[in-house]
Write a structure and sequence with these properties.
The structure holds 2 protein chains of 2 kinds. Chain A has 19 helices and 21 strands. Chain A has 3 domains: 171 residues, Dimethylsulfoxide Reductase, domain 2 (3-Layer(aba) Sandwich); 187 residues, Rossmann fold; 111 residues, Barwin-like endoglucanases (Beta Barrel). Chain A is α/β, with parallel strands linked by helices. The N and C termini of chain A lie far apart (64 Å). Chain B has a domain of 39 residues. Helices cover 39% and strands 14% of the residues of chain B. Chain B has 2 helices and 4 strands. Chain B has a two-stranded antiparallel ribbon. In chain B, strand 1 and strand 2 form a beta hairpin. Chain B starts with 11 loop residues before the first strand and ends in a 5-residue tail after the last strand. The chains are: A alpha/beta, B alpha+beta. At the A-B interface, helix 11, helix 13, strand 9, strand 10 and strand 11 of A face strand 1, helix 1, strand 3, helix 2 and strand 4 of B.
């Protein structure tokens, strides 16, 4: 909606804002660096609201925790929007000047009364009302979100519902106000920025824009395919149809990280040709036809990475890779050379300078300037440009240059994996502070915090099901089953359980999850699985 | 106990789908990759390729990966571990 895919605000702004909504984010454990900035904000007087089905360690810091049912975020957001309008607290001047489509939004949210939302989300009407009023009347306010709302079949709609709230209240385009998706992997922002996306060339330039694509055609001496490709989930669907047979995996472990793991593994191991380039022999590498040993990007490579505040920073090589492992850049360029192309890169800086020549938003970020300034936030159009602290300030000019930002009204749509008598319990999955994703990189390090996988369950459910803390049970979904010990967790409400993805070799949680994906974003509904719990039969001696 | 991973220090190849992975030289491994990509393109065309790039790798590696996908494989089917 805004034109470029990045958080609008700098980390520093969260220290100076008046109100923070942490929506579907357990930043205390999953984005600890950003959370330090957020705590400074709280210490400086900002009010913190945490919207999360679990009363997480992040929520413990909040002034108010709104414990909504899994997958009811749009019901809550629309109710907040309706209440803001009903109380006459919307920013009429901003709406009139900078947006379009307000009437359709007002009509859409009209049925989302506080009473309806309380029933649908489980959040008390009074708490919804309080957040609505506080958010609208705050001078500066920020909404920060992450996978809690995007690991759903309607991920894009969840995000749009939140963007609609900042458009309603004018909390964007100004210092201390904005929307901030907190990116997880250290360079997931950069991956997209560099065009490792099916529909974008480097610098967000759309591959289906003929004029922009022609620039790359001229630079590279080829015809870049003019139609967008498939994202990851689309690629798995194409594998299922037999339309995708050759896969090159660089530093990812989809056999363990994909929802409905059994399906992902089966599809990858039945490809005609699979190449895996990685630093460890992951479960994905184990089924490859060729495995290429690579350097660890954070210690054994030169280059740059981009964080959640759009800041590009230098990373420096400190060690040689072990044995015959080689830098990813060398591997890719050498493959290209053997296939007939000479790209002429001597250093990582050569690659970066080529990128700068093709991406206007990175053009001014030479290595020299990145090093002198300690990083630069895109967009940075030339060598005199300092980079931009926050985005969309044009929305506060009068008249607003460029396009108005549209309201996109969306409907509440509950999770796909339905609860019923056979699968009566909601399982949501996520991460913990001490481990990282599928555990490949963190399993080699000890941590006093790490305690292995468990099915975390509310005290009420433990009593109702006759389960003891530590008791091993079978967890069953429509797609598979695993065994894990019970752990009683007071932060969970009855009917809600929690597991992580960190111990896939022991407890393959993704055997349970559903790959119901948002067709637009390709994100699967990891956050909402339907399960039942079975006691294990006591062995007869 | 979770498996404690050991760094990969040499290329590995499989002589057939039933054979186990065995160590190989870079020359042999890269030649096999080029041959495999070539066979796939000849049999199915460029849309048969998919590249999964890495969200822990540098910007430069991601730029190189998408350039490789688009210029050498002729495919826009590239993504960067950003859906989970």
């Amino acid at each position: 909606m805004f034109g470029a895919g990045g958080g609008t605000s700098s980390y520093r702004e969260v220290e100076e804002t008046d109100l923070i909504v942490l929506w579907g984010s357990n930043a205390r454990e999953t984005h600890p660096i950003f959370f330090h900035h957020l705590l400074r904000g709280v210490r400086n007087g900002a009010r913190l609201y945490a919207v999360d089905p679990r009363r997480t360690s992040s929520a413990e810091w909040a002034d108010v925790w709104l414990g909504l049912d899994v997958g009811s975020d749009i019901a809550l957001a629309n109710a907040i929007g309706r209440e803001i309008i009903a109380a006459g607290l919307e920013d009429e001047a901003f709406i009139g000047r900078a947006t379009e489509g307000f009437e359709a939004y007002r009509t859409k949210v009209e049925p989302y009364t506080l009473e309806y939302a309380e029933r649908e989300t489980g959040v008390p009407a009074g708490a919804i009302r309080e957040l609505a009023h506080a958010f609208a009347t705050a001078d500066k306010a920020m909404i920060c979100w992450t996978l809690g709302i995007t690991e759903h079949h309607n991920a894009v709609d969840n995000v749009l519902a939140l963007i609609d709230l900042v458009l309603l209240t004018g909390h964007v385009g100004r210092w201390g106000s904005g929307v901030n998706p907190l990116r997880g992997q250290n360079n997931v922002q950069g991956g997209g920025d560099m065009g490792a996306l099916p529909d974008r060339l480097p610098g967000f330039q759309h591959v289906e824009n003929d004029e922009l694509r022609a620039k790359f055609d001229r630079a590279w001496g080829v015809s870049v395919p003019p139609k967008r490709g498939w994202h990851l989930s689309g690629m798995f669907d194409a594998m299922e149809r037999g339309d995708l047979q050759a896969v090159y995996v660089i530093g990812e472990n989809p056999v363990q990280s994909e929802a409905d793991q059994r399906r992902a593994k089966h599809l990858l191991e039945t490809r005609e040709f699979l190449v895996v380039q990685d630093i460890f022999l992951t479960a994905t590498a184990e089924i490859a036809d060729v495995v290429l040993p690579a350097a660890a990007s954070w210690a054994e490579s030169e280059g740059t990475v981009t964080n959640s505040e759009r800041r590009v920073q230098r990373v420096r090589k400190a060690l040689e890779p072990p044995g015959e492992a080689r830098d990813d850049l060398w591997i890719i360029e050498e493959l290209a050379r053997r296939m007939g192309a000479e790209w002429g890169w001597q250093t990582a800086e050569d690659v970066w300078d080529e990128l700068r020549s093709l991406s206007p938003v990175h053009a001014g970020m030479s290595y020299a300037r990145l090093e002198a300034l300690g990083g630069i936030q895109w967009p940075c159009y030339d060598e005199n440009h300092p980079g931009e602290l926050f985005l969309h300030s044009r929305l506060w000019e009068d008249p607003v240059p460029g396009n108005r930002v549209p309201f996109v009204p969306v409907d509440h749509d509950p999770p796909v994996d339905k609860l019923d008598d056979d699968y009566p319990i909601r399982l949501t999955t996520g991460r913990r502070l001490d481990s990282y994703n599928t555990g490949v990189q963190t399993a080699g390090y000890r941590s006093p915090l790490r305690r292995g996988e468990s099915l975390d369950i509310s005290p009420e459910d433990a009593v109702a099901y006759g389960l003891a803390d530590g008791e091993r049970v079978r967890v069953v979904s429509r797609r598979g089953q695993v065994e894990a010990p019970i752990r009683i967790d007071e932060s969970l409400r009855p009917g809600l359980t929690f597991m992580t993805l960190h111990f896939q070799d022991d407890v393959a949680t993704n055997l349970l999850t559903i790959d119901a994906t948002d067709p637009k974003s390709g994100t699967a509904e990891f956050k909402a699985t339907a399960i039942r719990i079975e006691k294990l039969a006591v062995p007869v001696g | 106990m979770p498996k404690s991973y050991v760094r990969l220090t040499q290329p590995l190849v499989r002589d057939s789908k039933d054979a186990p992975l065995r160590p190989a030289s870079w020359d042999e491994a890269l030649a096999k990759v080029v041959a495999g990509f070539g066979a796939a393109k000849a049999a199915h065309g460029s849309t048969t390729f998919g590249v999964f790039s890495c969200s822990k790798a540098t910007n430069e590696v991601n730029f190189a990966a998408q350039k490789f996908s688009r210029v050498m494989l002729g495919s826009n089917n590239i993504d960067s571990c950003n859906r989970t």
